[in-house]
Amino acid sequence: MKEYLRFLYRCFRVSFVGDWRYQLWMLLLTIFVLLGVNAWARQFVHGLITTGMTDQVSWGLFIANFTYLVGMAAAAVMLVIPVYIYRNKELHDLVIFGELFAVAAIIMCLLFVVVDLGRPDRMQHMLMRFNFPMSLLTWDVVVLNVYLLLNLHICGYLIYSRYRKREPGKWFYIPFVFIAIVWAISIHTVTAFLLVGLGGRPYWNTAIIAPRFLASAFSAGPAFIILTLMAIQWFTSHQVPQKAYMTLRAIVVVAMSINVFLLGSELFTEFYSDSAHIASVKYLWFGIHGHDELVPWIWTALAMNLVALVMLYLPITRSRKLLAPACILLIVGIWIEKGMGLIVPAFVPSPIGEIVEYTPTLNEILICVGIWSFGLLIYTIFIRVTLPVLSGQLVADRIFHTTPNAAEEFAAANNGQSTQEVLS
Amino acid sequence: MRLPVLRQDDAGGGCGGCPPQDAPDSRRSFLRSTVAVGAGFAALGAALSPLADLDTDKVFAGEDFFREHYKELTAEDKARLFADIEAQIDREYGVQATVGDPRPLPGVEFVYALNLSRCDGNRACVHACVKENNQSREPEIQYIRVLEMPIGTFELERGNQYYSEKTPRPGHFYMPIQCHQCANPPCVKVCPVEATWQEADGITVVDYDWCIGCRYCQAACPYWARRFNWTDPEIPSDEINPDMAYLSNRPRSRGVMEKCTFCLQRTRKGRMPACLEACPTGARKFGNILDPGSEVSQILREKRVFVLKEEVGTRPRFFYYFDELSSRTTEGVAS
Amino acid sequence: MRNRVLENVIGWGISAVLLILAALFLWAPIQVSNPVPEPVDVDRARLGARPIRVAMHDPPSIEVATFDMNCMECHALFESGKMMPGGLQRHNDIEMGHGINTNCFNCHDVERRDRLVLEGGETVGFNQVPQLCGKCHGPTWRDWQQGIHGKTVGSWRGGDERQQRYTCTDCHDPHTPAFKRGTPLPGPNTIRMTPGEGPHHDDGVHRPLAQWINQIAEHGHDDDAPP
Question: What 3-state DSSP class applies to C164?
Answer without folding.
Answer: strand
